[in-house]
Design brief:
386 residues; mainly alpha; Growth Hormone, Chain: A; 0% strand
Length: 386
């Protein structure tokens, strides 16, 4: 046998050297899916999603109060409720407005619970299924659900249906994970096509885009309501969500490719695996860090998730009695400030501070903002909390 016949076909020395010299703890910085130009469509898709979510959230609370004002004839001869909102404490209008505030708060709560309770259970399993079925499918589900929700709400406004239809629409949307499905899946989409070292920056810019959409939604919705009533803002919201759905279906490519997907499991298995992570006897340092992080994330979200609805209720009532335009301007100012911070300040701040230090600083700033809002009794004080 010749020397050449004894040598391995693949070249033993090169393979062996690579195996021995490559540290096992090093994780590649390459994205899971190579970037291509079609992936850019995720930007308009997310912009449309966030704009629809933002307009719908701003308008819905105001419509609930408007519904009760109309049903209680709480309008002056010009169709204005602002003067009645500021009625003297000894007048019947003052008592009537207190009843309207209570009813608005109650039905806003019903709509929120109808949306969040099924959403909580849906979001326990949806992230796992995106690893098995891909990202695009769940963006489609989320945008379609949002479209159907605001079609129902728009029809209920147009035909003056009972508010129970707003609650029903919120509940149906919650079954698909509501706004959290497209939001969380879009995060995964960005992560799939982004190098590991750039993900924090890209996701921060995505949050900044969210604030830009909220800014636009605040300005647009306020004047939209003032000049056209409540039907057209809801119809526009449904149209924007539908456009996001169509753009996803026709232009957006999948990033979580078949070769990278996990095997699909039953819902009961998926839920059991979620709880096993926290209850299994295999305790690790990584899991402890994750639990601390998820608790911090939960506390942050529980204080901010329903902030917009609470602020609108506060602004509609005494002592502010704001119109839809003023509510929109304030919403735009607050979210523009947050968007500026996310997009413009994140790079210099990350150069000086770690991610954990940035998170702690943001938590203290949020706490100060909530405190200022809670103590506010003038417009100027309210704006200081921005």
């Amino acid at each position: 046998m010749s020397v050449s016949e004894r040598k391995p076909l693949l070249g033993e020395s090169c393979i062996q050297d690579n195996v021995e010299k490559t540290p096992t703890h090093i994780v590649s910085d390459n994205p899971a899916t190579p970037f291509c130009w079609q992936h850019v469509f995720i930007v308009p898709v997310t912009l449309l999603m966030y704009t629809a979510m933002s307009i719908g959230s701003v308008v819905q609370t105001q419509w609930i109060q408007e519904y009760f004002m109309l049903s209680h004839n709480f309008k002056d001869s010009l169709g204005n409720s602002n003067s009645n909102c500021k009625a003297d404490k000894n007048s019947t209008k003052y008592t009537d407005f207190e009843i309207i505030e209570q009813l608005t708060s109650e039905w806003t709560l019903y709509a929120v619970l109808a949306n969040y309770i099924p959403c909580f259970f849906a979001m326990m399993v949806i992230p796992s299924y995106t690893d098995a079925l891909g990202r695009k499918l769940f963006i489609l589900i989320g945008t379609l659900s949002m479209t159907l929700r605001y079609i129902i709400v728009a029809l209920s406004v147009y035909y003056n249906w009972h508010l129970i239809w707003v609650v029903v629409a919120s509940g149906l949307d919650g079954l698909s994970g509501s706004m959290y499905t497209p939001y969380s899946v879009s995060m995964s989409y960005y992560a799939d096509i982004t190098p590991r070292s750039k993900r924090a920056l890209v996701l921060s810019c995505n949050d900044g885009l969210t604030m830009v959409c909220l800014t636009i939604a605040g300005l647009v919705s306020g004047y939209f309501i003032s000049y056209s009533g409540f039907f057209w803002p809801f119809a526009a919201t449904a149209g924007i969500a539908a456009l996001s759905f169509l753009l996803t279906a026709s232009c957006l490519p999948e990033t979580h490719l078949i070769q990278n997907r996990t095997k699909s499991k039953s819902i009961t298995t998926t839920v059991r695996r979620v709880f096993e992570f926290y209850t299994s006897s295999a305790s690790t340092e990584t899991r402890s860090v994750y639990i601390i992080l998820i608790i911090a994330y939960f506390l942050m979200n529980i204080s901010t998730t329903n902030r917009m609805n609470t602020e609108i209720l506060y602004q509609l009532g005494r002592p502010f009695c704001w119109s839809s335009e003023k509510i929109g301007i304030y919403s735009a100012a607050r979210h523009a400030t947050q968007g500026f911070s996310c997009i413009v300040l994140i790079i210099p701040l990350k150069a000086c501070l770690s991610d954990s230090s940035l998170a702690v600083m943001a938590a203290f700033i949020n706490a100060a903002s909530f405190t200022l809002e809670g103590l506010a009794y003038t417009d100027f004080m309210f704006y200081l909390g921005v």
